[in-house]
Amino acid sequence: MHKKLAAAFLAALCLFACRTPDGPRYPIPSQNLAEAIPEGSSKVTFFNTSNHFLYWESGMIRIKIDGDQLPTLNLDRYIQTFVEPGTYEIRLEHFDLFMWKGTHELMVDAPEVYVEVFNSLISTEMRRVDSLPDDFGERFTPGRQPSNW
What we know:
Oligomer: single chain
Number of domains: 1
CATH topology: Immunoglobulin-like
Order of helices and strands: HEHEEEEEEEHE
């Protein structure tokens, strides 16, 4: 009896961890980094640098911009989108036995903004950086293409 209950509990945890967040989907452009920035917009690139050793199974990060969902980012993935300059609420989530969340403010005040997202032991964090990492082209791949979103 206990084995069946434990198996059902683990299956429920797995399904909860793999669920797709609710809410409207934020539009994404081609994930080609050389994509031209539309006039009046800024390009925001999110990339997941979570530690492989600690988060190999739970490294996926869900991202919302002002309540609209971007594609979930696995380890060493990126997603770029175009937004109008301004201030945005960024909500980040990851599941690792519990749902860890973080709400942050992002000021988009440049033509290109780079945001590193990562899991920590008790939350999901982000930090705006000045440039993409030197190994970005070799390490990171697109999280999702527009045709699959």
